[in-house]
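Lab notebook page, bench 4
Experiment: in silico fold of construct C2
Operator: M.H.
Input chain length: 503 residues
Purpose: comparison with the prior construct
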Amino acid sequence: MKSCRKARSAAFIFYLLFCSVSFAQDAKRPAFTDLGQFNYANFLLGSREYSSAVREFSRLIENYPGSPLLPEAQFRLGESYFNSGRYKDAASEFGRFISNYPSSPFAPVAKTLLEDSKQKAAVARLPVIALKDADTGGAEGFLRAAQVTFFEAKNSGELDGELKRLKAHGVNTVIVRVFHNKDDRFYPLASPKDTRGVYFKTTHAPVVDDLLSTIVSLSHKHGLKVFAWMTTRYADYGVEDDASADCEAYDLKNSVYARCKGLDLFNEKNIRRLEGIYSDLAACAIDGVLFQDDLVLRYNEGFGPHMQARFRKETGLFINPKDLYSTAPDSPSVQYTSLFWRWAAWKNKRLLEVAGRLRSVVKKRRPDAKFAVNLMYESITNPASALAWLSQDLNAAVKAGFDYYSIMAYHRQMEEELEKGGHEVRGLIREMAEGAAKTVGDPKRVLIKLQTIDWKTGEPLSNSEVVSLIRTLRSTSGVSLAVVPYRSDFPFFELGAAGAAAR
């Protein structure tokens, strides 16, 4: 009987955490081409994101050595260096370009820019570019968190004991699931009144049980902070059958539009409803909110009349799917056009606007509440793919001024998707933490999340495997840390040690 319950729990955790957002496994991503990569880099250059343009033009040159786009890519790389004030690098790149492509139509301009770069490098120091402080309201220190899909407690007394143990082991924050999807496992101490909805009082969605108030009260009793882990796009509780609320996607294979999972976040009616839900969430004495990783739009999602009207109003353009994607000759690969990159960045802007509005309604009732946004690991390792596939952009998120940036550094998942060994992925996660900390400007505001179970089997990972990653990160990066999902048998004192090391 115990093994059956364990199997059901494992299946639930897998479904909850990853069936809805395991983008690499439930659909094959369109492959990048040299033209798609060039269009993305050129988009960044045109958007004056010069440092990012340097990175992406460099990737094109490295990854597509035989591409006919190399001459212009190298010229644009020099241009990106020049515009970012890195004149010494610009001079080197323009000199290399002139040597490699003396007959290029860009050569005359490159010669002029080469001389300008040399002169500027001689008379001016390389400027120190300071990251602008985001308006975070003073994000408080290092998080040592457990992300909770459900507590094992069957009553408030047992819950009190679980929370007391977490605090004693050095955890300072619990990130608690406050939403419930159909077929999810209920909290054992809940008295369910619906099969879908939320775990707090609201008039805008079905209430499964007002459990959050109890969790918050007991957590605060033991000095633990509580972040409410809440959905956005997938919070269609109570309006599941309203087709007008649904997101719209484009089926590239069959060239037709289709409904997709989740709310249409370009529809103001949906946003106002979400604002009502989040305002009611703030009636609980929560310390913060973690936006669930459904705050994304895939490469073929986000269509519909509301999107079209807003895009035309803001840009004067109309979106035709045929203008976003093109097929390379004699290849099944999909190329992303220049318009696609503009649209993807625009979708990202909308997602961040929605997050900002939800943050505002919470802060009206909880001025000190902190906010964390979930980001896929590709936001660090492959920004082009993150923007194309998910409409996510770490740089844009930083400008939006969240308190914490939650990077889902799930090592087993990364090993499979990236086809890399454990040692290599461990090094990559360390580099991700350091890179994100540099982008954010404060390592404590980067929350690296580590998995404690195998997503495929639902079986717990060995404690030593996860602890090894915790120790690697705490010795090198000083970032905040969380483990997901919460397991009562996990040695949480290792997170406490991480917090002590960071201080």
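Observations: The chain has 19 helices and 15 strands. The radius of gyration is 24 Å.
Next step: discuss at group meeting.
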